[in-house]
Amino acid sequence: MNCRGCGAHLHLPLIDLGTAPPSNAYLSAERLNQSEQWVPLRVLVCDACWLVQTEDYRTADSLFDADYAYFSSFSSSWLAHAERYVVSMTERFGLNAQSRVVEIAANDGYLLQYVARRGIPCLGIEPTASTARAARDKGLDIRELFFGEAVGRQLAEEGWSADLMAANNVLAHVPDINDFLKGFATLLKPTGVVTFEFPHLLRLMAEHQFDTLYHEHYSYLSLTAVQTLCARNGLAVFDVEELPTHGGSLRVFVQRADGAARQVTAAVGELQAREEASGVRTASYYASLAPAAERIKHELLRFLLQAKAEGKKVVGYGAAAKGNTLLNYAGVRGDLLAWVADANPHKQGKFLPGSRIPIVEPARIAEEKPDYVLVLPWNLLSEVMEQQAVVRSWGGRFVVAVPELRSL
């Protein structure tokens, strides 16, 4: 396989997680008597441009289909993050009723709803029918498309050249990352700004977040790699912020390379230097993740087996993609984890891919009073512990497995 960023041959491994079904391919009861497609989940590193990426086995349209079940609005902390973003961008870049805002991967309208409330014309691009429908129910203008250079040109011809383009947690999800970025250079006004948010590779490596690796994430990004990708496709990074979301993310501010150049902030150079010092441009930097993943797997299995031997009941919370990576890599099934609760009604009544553990309403936690609640989306631990504080009333404990097993 060649690098999807620069085309160089890939030979440096990051990790091999065996085989797994797509992490968001939740099963209906009717599909339980059918087979699932398990495909290799291997991640490689390009030692030419340092883009970390999965091997190719599934096409984007098969991963992000009409039944896609990830709805952003079921996380209160993520909604608050989106609202703060809109306030900040409106003030920083002077957005008003004459501006144009375009969000790529608008999902269920979790962010654009706040743009629309300010009277700023906005458009969302969202390829999955389920979430696009939810966004339209909020009164938003949504196009069901996969974004790229051709779509960017089409929208520009329609008058949607953008002052601000938002792309949260989507840059990692595109197989043709060069065509995707060219779309921004095509649709952005010469004075416009793009913001990309994505989990930061440095945090993934430092905190052994191997469960964030799954087929729907084609790329794992450092500022180093993103700057190279942008430069190749007519864009330039001029600012960066570090965020706590998704276990540690970057918000990268980008402009057209041929546009009205803004001064590059000191934050860009500082983070570049930190990445360089960490070793992102060295092969040895990537050797630590695989043994850490194996340790985490063994810790989780020891805990679950011990709990079962003691007659304790363990359930999960959050039918998240990262949880599916963890459970399938560790070989956990319903005998060790009875069920997983999730607030998203689009997931309730379905079953996790691979493990086939049932997904239930959160009310089941108070009804059955389990001894342990394994929080699979560990990045939302504080939110889950607050929402499910009742677990403490019967002596129940919360547990997370990454980056190490903790009982809280």
Structural summary, described in words:
By secondary structure, the chain is an alpha/beta fold. The chain folds into 2 domains: 72-286, Rossmann fold (3-Layer(aba) Sandwich), CATH 3.40.50; 289-407, 3-Layer(aba) Sandwich (Rossmann fold). It is built from 13 helices and 17 strands. The strands form 3 sheets. A 7-stranded mixed sheet has the order 6-5-4-7-8-11-10. The protein has a 6-stranded mixed sheet with strand order 14-13-12-15-16-17. Helix 5 (149-157) runs parallel beside helix 6. The longest helix has 21 residues, at 289-309. It is globular. The model has no long low-confidence stretch (mean pLDDT 94).
Please, what is the CATH homologous superfamily of the largest domain?
Vaccinia Virus protein VP39
Low-pLDDT runs of 5+ residues are none
Stated plainly, the CATH topology of the largest domain is called Rossmann fold
- Rounded to the nearest angstrom, the radius of gyration is 21 Å
* Ends apart, CA distance between termini: 43 Å
Counting DSSP H or I runs of 4 or more residues, the number of helices is 13
CATH architecture assignment of the largest domain: 3-Layer(aba) Sandwich
- Count of separate structural domains: 2
The SSE string, one letter per element, is EEEHHEHEHEHEHEHEHEEHHEHEEHEHEE
Strand order of the largest sheet: 6-5-4-7-8-11-10
The geometry reads as: globular
- Beta-strand segment tally: 17
Report the sheet with the most strands, covering strand number, pairing sense and barrel closure.
Answer: 7 strands, mixed
Tell me the helix content: 25-40%
CATH domain class of the largest domain = Alpha Beta
Helix-strand makeup class: alpha/beta
Mean pLDDT: 94
User: Could you tell me the strand content as a percent range?
Assistant: 15-25%
